[in-house]
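Hi P.,

Sorry for the delay on this. The queue was packed all week, but I finally got your sequence through. Input first:
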Amino acid sequence: MTFRRSLEMSLSREEFFRLLRAAIHDFETDGEMVRWADGDRAGTIHLVPLPDRRVGSVVVRRCKVEVALEAPEAEGEEFMQRFHRAFLRGGG
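Then the structure:
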């Protein structure tokens, strides 16, 4: 069973790979593709650059993130919770 999600994220490629370690500790990269395995489960993330979004003089980097896991729905959702926590940013 393959679990898939597609997200649009506002961050640069460098930020993405730096923050990803909090969600996936051991992974391999091949260009814009991330691969990892954890026991009998495997997954990939494909990072697709999108055009920057401009709001006045502010430039926001964007990318599309396509996640695919060989896991049941419940395990996929659990992974996505961990993934989202890794990318949380504080504000104020």
